[in-house]
Specification:
With 136 residues, the protein is mainly α. It folds into two domains: 13-90, no CATH class; 102-136, no CATH class. The chain is built from five helices and no strands.
Length: 136
């Protein structure tokens, strides 16, 4: 058999095509591994930021990643602690302030005994009295 044999040429062509496909597959595999590694690192960072009580996740991730790329020796925990000190507004406070003050006097007018007393019968007067105390 010589190199000019059509079977040999077809086998060589098939071999080169297979090698090319293998190289493409290996390249794609390496790219996917890098992407997966980046996603896992970002997820670990999100977990750490969540544990630290972050309120604005996207801003905290951007700032943390920026600081980690600037300082290769820094650990994520150190950067998160630094962010807590420098930008506390990115994190939720330990004690959440009350949004609304409790109402004074409105619901206490009927007294606790009358508020929870439902009418025992179908008497309209009792039902009206019950509904009035519930609205107050």
């Amino acid at each position: 058999m010589t190199d000019n044999d059509p079977k040999t040429q077809a086998a060589d062509q098939e071999l080169s095509d297979t090698r090319r496909k293998l190289e493409e597959t290996e390249s794609l595999r390496r790219q996917l591994e890098q992407t997966l590694s980046h996603v896992r690192a970002e997820q670990r960072l999100r977990d750490k930021l969540t544990a630290a009580g972050v309120a604005d996740m996207e801003a905290a991730i951007l700032l943390t990643e920026q600081r980690l790329t600037q300082n290769k020796d820094a650990k994520p925990e150190q950067v998160i602690d630094q962010l807590k000190r420098e930008k506390p507004y990115l994190f939720t406070p330990l004690v959440a302030p009350q949004a609304m003050q409790p109402t004074r006097g409105k619901k206490d007018k009927a007294g606790p005994a009358q508020q929870n007393t439902k009418p025992a019968s179908a008497d309209r007067k009792q039902l009206m009295q019950y509904m009035k105390t519930r609205r107050k």
